[in-house]
């Protein structure tokens, strides 16, 4: 295994993940995709995500992606001797990423001061529901809680009065993933400050909250409320600041997203749908008026789109250079030529699954030193002996740790 062979801009960086579920593992997956050597600490039974989603041969296809580019080391953190072994690993790492409840690592004898006692320049990223301090510090939270308290769950719903169903959630764990992205950005920022020419060589601590990661994405929601007392309301498939920009039905039961919300684009769309008069209609002469009269405007566009199959609608919009796309499912994503050209849909051999698995590609793309998928999610503890040998543990010592239930 060529851990330090060039395979991305973070080659040579060693990261220890003490995480579970989504947020911390998503952060380290990004770092691993960029070339970092990620050592994932798992309990002997494995990360819970190994049991999520559809299975092949008893293995989750989700784990194939979630655990890729990571080396799995099993460690029973409750066992006597586990903290000492973890500190031996930390001594050889640049970064620690964890997403336990605030204070849990410290209660296990692994507070920031203890970890920096063995690695003074260590960068530590704590990811939690509400952050490491404050009145909500100890409350339980998952990504969906962050999405709700951060305002996303409210704005992702249908427009008021259109349904009495519960507020719609985004179809993926976006709150966790956003927190993971912010953690990765914070880690790279801290490493830059530590290691750049003239840097101070000091370790730093990141405190990332799921709730705050979501809130930070809420655009003008708080400024509008502070300035005008306005509480932004959900608008379904529309956006509240520009029109037309929505999903429109087609004859074959599909949906087409059309974003023609500038004056030149609206003019082109109006001509395409056979209504060149619309830009001069008193209801639609400006974006502000189009937003005010968006229901009537969307109905006019839908009257055109629902007469044609989605492929024809897409072809016509493309010919007129109007921003648009049909609403993709996994099937359309997998066959899309742009994603394929950019290597964003990759067929990767997975030894656990026993067959190729489709993976999302690596983001961001760095042309002169691209990240790679070096391997899929490993077996539980697949790299335990290898990693412990790298930090100087003998075969006899490793066998003893295993017999004692530490690893």
UniProtKB/TrEMBL annotation:
GO molecular function: transferase activity
Keyword Kinase applies: no
Source taxon at top rank: Bacteria
Segments forming a coiled coil: none
EC numbers on record: 2.8.3.-
Major enzyme class: transferase
Keywords: Transferase
Leader sequence residues: none
Pfam families for the chain: CoA_transf_3
Protein name: CoA transferase
Lineage: Bacteria, Pseudomonadati, Pseudomonadota, Alphaproteobacteria, Rhodobacterales
